[in-house]
Amino acid sequence: MNCKNCNEPLEHGAQFCNHCGARVILEPFTFKYVTQDFEERFLNLDRNLLVRTLRDMLIRPKAVIDGYIDGVRKRHMNLANWLAVALTASGLMIFVVRNFYPESLDMQWMIDAMGESSKNNPFLQSLNQEDPTANMWWMEYQAILYILMIPIYALLSKITFIRQKAYSYLKHIVIVGYTQSWLSLAMTIPVLILLPLGANYMKMSYWILAINFLFSAYVYKRVFQLSFLGIVWRSLLFILVGLGLYIFIIIATILFMLAFGSAFGA
């Protein structure tokens, strides 16, 4: 019998290939097999890795993040699987919001709060329409946006903690990946509970943003072992760096359009 992965001969009774390390699969391809394979690869329910990772990211995030960086793979979910589970949870939440609670996307409350000034704002007026999901195009691409934001946040993180030489840009991606995935998973359950109670998803998003900022600050405080004043200063610096990057992108976009706008018919 040969390995199905590398086609090298297998020893009798072997559970793994000595050449490539692939597991020897003898079970028939059934629904039960697919379910067990999914649990083993992504959830690891037999070792409670999902629950353990959720818990430890809350009480000792440094152990999870530094453990993964140092090569520990059996105590917590690895980053790829952690991201996959978070994206699945986020996708489920968006599906439920769009298909069962579209009224929770209504932003009339924002228009009413701004009063007369909203009448001269075309963006706000575009939100005042019968279909509240019409302007939520970003929901269609939330998985792509989620992935793209991780390296951007990691760049801001690296600049903010530039003196922490032990943590490279790649390690900051690990920090951001674990942190944002935890937030995505942790926020899904309360949102799904509050939606049937009439909660507005767009209003909740502001609370989620605040929780995101506070939890991220907490994780960095624990990872870099900072004092309270230290993390406050770093948080302010992170905001300033983010604003600087945002302004740079706007200026670069304007200069690009001025220089090459004619080539695009502008």
Summarize the structure in words.
With 266 residues, this protein is an all-alpha fold. Helix content is 64%, strand content 0%. It has helices at 31-43, 49-59, 61-69, 79-100, 108-114, 122-127, 142-160, 169-194, 201-223, 228-260. Helix 7 packs across helix 10. The longest helix is centred in the C-terminal third of the chain and has 33 residues, at 228-260.
Core attributes:
single chain; 266 residues; mainly alpha
In short, what is this structure?
The chain is built from 10 helices and no strands. Helix 7 crosses helix 10. The protein has 266 residues and is mostly helical.
How many domains is the backbone divided into? 3
Instruction: Provide the β-strand percentage band.
Output: under 5%
Largest sheet data: none
Number-wise, the strands total: 0
> Would you tell me the overall average pLDDT?
81
> Which secondary-structure class do the elements indicate?
mainly alpha
* Low-confidence region ranges: none
State the order of secondary-structure elements, H for helix, E for strand. HHHHHHHHHH
**Portion of residues in helices?**
55-70%
Radius of gyration: 23 Å
**Distance between the ends:** 64 Å
Shape: globular
Number of helices: 10
